[in-house]
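Q&A log
Question type: sequence-to-structure
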Amino acid sequence: MLEEGTFNSRQKLWNPVEGDYITRENAKKEFHNFVKNVYAALYRIESRSTNGRPSMSIFCRLDIGLIIEQGKVDYFVNEVERTATASLWSNGLVGLGPSKIGIIGSSFALALHKWLCIMTDI
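Response status: OK
Response body:
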């Protein structure tokens, strides 16, 4: 587990376009593990401080950044947003047309509403 205020050091930077399959899969697994560990640590901290289930258990967006120095990569958490305050970056890319976030947002809103209804019925 990471200590607060530290970076998670990576082995070596590789090119995601030219890297071989094994290297890419290992990097993806490493990244997913980093995100899962960060989420688990934040969840534990918040659930202890609130004596309950944190709002991040409903929806949480982690903005993960990279610092690249001398061919090595460190992950860091740039931002954590949750539930109604989460930004889903709905701006379309220049030259590629409008964003599709409306469809994603509408689908998510319906699914979240159904889930909340089920959870409040318990």
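Response note: The first helix runs from residue 21 to 50.
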